[in-house]
# Entry
Amino acid sequence: MNFFRQWGKFMLVGAKAHARWELSVSTTILKDKKRLFLLGILVIPAVLGSFAFADQIGGALPEFVGGKEAYSPAFYSNMIFIMSILVGVGAGLITGCIGAGGGFIIAPALMSIGVKGILAVGTDLFHIFAKAIMGSVIHRKLGNVSVALALVFLIGAIIGSTAGGVINRVIYEINPVLSDAFITTIYSLMLGLLGTYAMTDYLRSRKAGGGVQDAHGGKSEGAELGALPQKLQNLNFPPMVKFDEGLIPGGRKISWVFLVLSGALVGLAAGIMGVGGGFLTFPIFVYMLGVSSMTTVGTDIFQIVFTAGYAGISQYAIYGFIFYTLAMGMLLGSLLGIQIGALVTKVVPGITIRGFYAMSVLAGFVNRIFALPAKLGEMGYIPIAKSTGAMLNTIGIWAFFIVIGAFSVWVIGTFLLNISVLKGEGVKS
# Structure
């Protein structure tokens, strides 16, 4: 039980760190006219996707950058594009308002509206990559990036994301239903652990009178070393990689082996789940490797761009597993949602927001776990009537969208009702 609690805490810390990155990226995009212009250019093919001459546009693209085969779902309908924007808004509201990554709900949401699991993963990776490139906040954080640390880490990340992509594609080739079941199982486990911990944390904090943390907060992670990081840094498997020279006299060093293994784990998660891997980088670096939080933030930004970009393009795009229309729609929606959510935190108690986050993650868990019986029954792994499986799946879908929809309406309503407060014309008690 203690292991699961610690793993849930581990994931929540990572989700918060990833949310801070997403908020920084979205703010950077929306405050720059050139980036907004670039966003408009990227969205044009998605909008044109529902028109008849979109086939000609897709056919003109060379296969190695996608073409009609890799981006074939882009030639779809305006309704799908609108749905993707709403999914992005929901994820963005969770990220901005709660200060913990809302990307966990994207794949379950896409799969619930009929997108195949492997397509949802590839699309999520491409959406993260496009956001990171346009945000291009890397240059602001380079002072906190240990280049040696980042490059060695990326060796493992590339290996891991390649493995994750291959696993997903091989399973899909064996049986598309098995692929959906596999991705659904992974998400069920992750969302179950994270949601259980988040709800337990919320109830504990509420009982204690709200706790000391705010929605985006928590104790800042400094440069102190725990027992595990000390042990790992004392193991001498050359070459040793130095880092944190500017923060600690003489800096610190760790064997390249641990960096490659950490990168491989992050990359594997990114390749299989399509969440960029950023939610794992922070807790691994700070709690396991003993890297300072400042260096971790810079390295996390660095790795997200390359890991999501490499995995999205090399493992999914060129094989036709990216839904370009959805990616652009989610990008538009998330930029809006993150900003609204971040503003709402100024007028809503943090304890309330944390409760909503726990409910949202658990709703995602219910959505995926209720979808699993129908898929296992379809493959003959468990005896279940089609009608029963379909009913469970429908319950999971409705439960998920009711919770996410109610949360979204509440956040947007709170924002609209407190515009004068947010403009500084009043103070909310």
